[in-house]
Amino acid sequence: MANVQQLSQTAFDRLKAEHEDLTTRGRIELSQKIEAARALGDLSENGDYHAAKEEKGKMEGRIMHLAHVIENAVIVEASNNGSTVGAGSIVSVVFEGDSQPEKYLVGSIEEKPEDLMVVSPASPMGAALLGSAIGDVVEYEAPTGMSLRVSVVEIE
Fold first, then answer.
1. Most buried of the four, 17, 71, 120, 154, by CB within 10 Å?
2. Nearest alpha carbon to residue 92 among 80, 106, 79
3. Which distant-in-sequence residues (6+ apart) come within 8 Å of 118 by Cβ?
């Protein structure tokens, strides 16, 4: 079964544009870098050549990742009602035993804003949070096997 990626339309469009840019402009520029480095001579001791080949490998990995995400994307609308947690919600929770709330985006890592941690809706914590409301205490099993409880204090 394919790994379904829940994305907002904005994130989907951004990833599609990045994929298009890398498969066109990115590949052309790297190809030119490799050719320029190759023209410098002995490839066995040519740092520019090896750096460009390594950069190409990383870029091709990103292209493959983006293609997979785009192919398996399901566009979801963020749950903006603020009353229950859904995919795309930003939720503040307090872990049992803590006093400071932590803020999470319930969604794909590809949606990640700079200042938020991301929890996948398919993860134990994300699945437990889905459908919960402010004031709810949800319990889930962490990957370590430990049972954790969080209180939902805010939903955006």
1. 120
2. 106
3. 104, 105, 107, 108, 109, 111, 112
For the whole model, what pTM was predicted? 0.67
- d(C-alpha 49, C-alpha 23), whole Å: 20
Q: Are 132 and 84 in contact (CB under 8 A)?
A: yes
Residue 95 CA to residue 137 CA, distance in Å, equals 9
Counted residue by residue, the chain has a size of 156
Token pair for 122:
């398919």
pLDDT score at 1: 43
pLDDT exceeds cutoff 70 at 80: no
Residue 155, number of CB atoms within 10 A of its CB: 22
Compute the C-alpha angle 3/88/72, nearest 5°. 20
Query: Would you call 146 helix, strand, or coil by DSSP?
Result: coil
Phi, psi of 7, rounded to the nearest 5 degrees: -135, 150
Look at residue 79 and tell me whether its pLDDT is greater than 60: no
pLDDT reading at 42 higher than 80:
no
